[in-house]
Write a structure and sequence with these properties.
Elements (H helix, E strand, L loop, with lengths): L12 H8 L6 H13 L17 E2 L5 E5 L7 H4 L7 H12 L20 E5 L12 H17 L5 E5 L1 H13 L15 E4 L5 E5 L4 H4 L6 H16 L1
Parallel strand pairs: 2-3, 2-4, 4-6
Antiparallel strand pairs: 1-3, 5-6
Length: 236
């Protein structure tokens, strides 16, 4: 691994992003993200797909870090910005706006004017996976990017995990980064809160996927409640 490709060697978020978007470590994910970007969905046939790893997005001084699973094939894999261009992102950015973390309630592309304040949005895996299911090996390969990102988000006090996969991945990343974590790891559940050493907090929420939102397992009121709690903790 060259120094530039080693996530831990990067001292700034822009430098880390520049290396991340060139990553080709997972052959299956590289093949899939590029296949999707080439074939496109009919509704987006006139757009140029991003088709690369998707970096985190937001305020470098964020006190809240939102962690999802991975880019959607025709969402962030198309737009190049995490949680942008799909139904999950519509839910998330509306909630962030209502909680005071975003300047507008929607995100459609990298040039749409969206600005996050004291929030950073990222994911456990940075390339769109087939069937939205990364393998354990792909998760572990991508973990170094998340660890490096967290190390540079020095003001983060609250971590919101969207779904069990994000929770497990973030937990591993924090342990690998040397953070002392409670034992045993609490079970995942919506609207659960895990106090970490050093005054940090993990918040857990169902992922705003259509599987959860269409069935009513997650409502906007439920997501708003979690974001209100995140805002209160971040301000403390």
């Amino acid at each position: 691994m060259t120094p530039a490709a080693d996530p831990s060697r990067h001292a700034t978020l822009p430098s880390l992003t520049a290396a991340l978007v060139e990553c080709r470590r997972c052959p299956r994910l590289v093949a899939w993200r590029e296949q999707v970007a080439g074939e496109k969905r009919r509704a987006f046939r006139d757009e140029e797909y991003w088709g690369r790893p998707v970096p985190g997005f937001g305020d470098p001084d964020a006190r809240l870090v939102v962690v999802g699973l991975a880019p959607a094939a025709h969402g962030a894999n198309r737009t190049g910005r995490m949680f942008t261009g799909d139904r999950s992102g519509e839910w998330l950015y509306r909630a962030l706006y209502r909680a005071g973390f975003a300047n507008q309630p929607e995100s459609t592309g990298r040039s749409d004017g969206l600005v996050l304040a004291e929030a950073w949005v990222t994911a456990a895996v940075r390339c769109a996976p087939p069937a939205n299911k990364p393998t354990p090996a792909e998760r572990d390969t991508c973990a170094a990017w998340l660890r490096a990102e967290l190390a540079l988000l020095t003001r983060a006090r609250v971590f919101l995990c969207l779904g069990g996969f994000a929770y497990q991945s973030l937990w591993r990343a924090l342990i690998a980064a040397g953070h002392e974590m409670p034992r045993p790891r609490p079970a995942f559940g919506h609207d659960r809160e895990v106090a970490l050493f050093g005054g940090r907090t993990l918040l857990l929420s169902f992922h705003p996927s259509q599987q959860n939102t269409f069935t009513g397992r997650l409502t906007e009121e439920m997501l708003d409640a979690v974001l209100r709690r995140a805002a209160a903790l971040a301000a403390g």
